[in-house]
């Protein structure tokens, strides 16, 4: 099982600033990632929350059963030392995804306090980033 976790405001994907984040909804993203993982027999457990503690609790609950994580932490990317520590406690591969190119926006979006706790980052490739991250995880799970 891989985890597909989205942080604050990503429940509004599709209607929130579509010029920045596009028209695809979070339900569409979850379906796309599930469809990409199904042929490999890998289940996707999706979770979204606007609350830092709820995201941390979800990660803790799955720390022993998940095989990988795709995470768009929303604005917690730039602020959450608590999420950084929670990610450090996870032994499986972890990919950070940002739909928009955070480097081409406000200066405060350029820093991710979570990136040092992740295996890698996919930034600015739209919702395709979620798929690319899931495909990389599938390779890792298969031993590639
Ligand atoms: C985001 C970028 C963040 O800076 C922002 O707070 C978001 C979405 C992205 O996917 O581009 O909520 O993570």
UniProtKB/TrEMBL annotation:
User: To which pathway does this protein belong?
Assistant: Metabolic intermediate biosynthesis; chorismate biosynthesis; chorismate from D-erythrose 4-phosphate and phosphoenolpyruvate: step 3/7
Residues marked Transition state stabilizer (site) = 16
Per UniProt, the enzyme's principal EC class comes to lyase
Kindly indicate whether the keyword Zinc belongs to this entry.
no
Summarize where substrate binds, as residue positions: 72, 78, 85, 99-100, 109
Catalytic site:
21 (proton acceptor), 98 (proton donor)
The record's annotation in Pfam families points to: DHquinase_II
UniProt keyword annotations, A-Z: Amino-acid biosynthesis, Aromatic amino acid biosynthesis, Lyase
Q: Where is the signal peptide?
A: none
**In terms of domain of life, where is this protein from?**
Bacteria
Q: What is its EC number?
A: 4.2.1.10
Family annotation (InterPro entries): DHquinase_II (IPR001874), DHquinase_II_CS (IPR018509), DHquinase_II_sf (IPR036441)
Catalytic reaction(s) noted: 3-dehydroquinate = 3-dehydroshikimate + H2O
Say which family it is in: Belongs to the type-II 3-dehydroquinase family.
Record's PANTHER family? CATABOLIC 3-DEHYDROQUINASE
Q: What does this protein do?
A: Catalyzes a trans-dehydration via an enolate intermediate.
Oligomeric state and partners? Answer: Homododecamer.
* Name of the protein: 3-dehydroquinate dehydratase
According to its UniProt entry, this protein's organism is Anaeromyxobacter paludicola
Q: What is the lineage of its organism?
A: Bacteria, Pseudomonadati, Myxococcota, Myxococcia, Myxococcales
């Amino acid at each position: 099982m891989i985890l597909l976790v989205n942080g604050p405001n990503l429940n509004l994907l599709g209607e929130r600033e579509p010029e920045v984040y596009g028209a695809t909804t979070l339900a569409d993203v979850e379906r796309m990632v599930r469809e990409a993982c199904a042929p490999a027999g890998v289940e996707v457990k999706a979770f979204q929350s606007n609350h830092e503690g709820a995201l941390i609790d979800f990660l803790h609950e799955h720390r022993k059963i998940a095989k990988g994580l795709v995470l768009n932490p929303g604005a917690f990317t730039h602020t959450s030392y608590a999420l950084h520590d929670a990610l450090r406690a996870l032994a499986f591969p972890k990919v950070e995804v940002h739909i928009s190119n955070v480097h081409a926006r406000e200066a405060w979006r350029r820093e991710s306090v979570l990136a040092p706790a992740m295996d890698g980052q996919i930034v600015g490739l739209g919702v395709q980033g979620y798929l690319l991250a899931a495909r990389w995880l599938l390779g890792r799970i298969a031993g590639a």
